[in-house]
Amino acid sequence: MTATLTGREAGDPSAPRGPLLSGSRCPPSHRGRNDPSWHWLAREYVWFLIPYMIYDSYAMYLCEWYRTGDQSSKHTLTIFRNFLSKNRLMITHHAVILFVLVPVAQRLRGELGDFFVGCIFMAELSTPFVSLGRVLIQLKQQHTLLYKVNGILTLTTFFLCRILLFPFMYWSYGQQQGLSLLQVPFHIPFYCNVANAFLIAPQIYWFSLLCKKAARLFDAPPAKKDG
């Protein structure tokens, strides 16, 4: 269902693979996005995740170091422990991507599951808006229209690309296999459902934090006028 949902899960190993599951056996009449020559993109783009995740983890550590208030101090084990303690969920998220998702998407899935790998990549569509929000906070621009518009875009893209994405993948698989959305979880390997649960759980948590932050922003009382 993610990169792990790539086999002939309906129970018939002799069933032909459809375009959602196969990276190389697409109908010859379908070109463009279903062209098997695009298979390399779903595989090689994974390599961008490695330096990105390493850089992001290091950047988060530097932020924690700067929060100590004494940039002249050395990087100590205490600072590193505080960093791990405050960012357990995010570090776990990065580690799972590096040590689980990358090997699965790069090697273990064979030539199957390009569609699902591409869907997972779509999750990063929300990242620019999340990052811009952080930049605006650093610049103390929370009162601006740009900050509010960016907040709406952040919520929208996060919900669509990190939460609604998962039922969409189940629905897409069901359409190929002739199953309803509710039937799909019972016709795929159990580990696929478990993997998706682990992936979507932190997304729901982070989305709830974004919603609470947005509620505080838009529920803030307007400034009182003099007189």
From TrEMBL:
> Which sequence ranges are marked TM in the entry?
45-66, 87-109, 115-137, 149-168, 188-207
UniProt-annotated location(s): Membrane
Q: Which GO terms describe its cellular component?
A: endoplasmic reticulum; membrane
Q: Where is this region: Disordered?
A: 1-34
InterPro entries from the UniProt entry = TLC-dom (IPR006634), TLCD (IPR050846)
Report membrane topology. Multi-pass membrane protein
Output the superkingdom of the source species: Eukaryota
Protein name in UniProt: TLC domain-containing protein 3A isoform X3
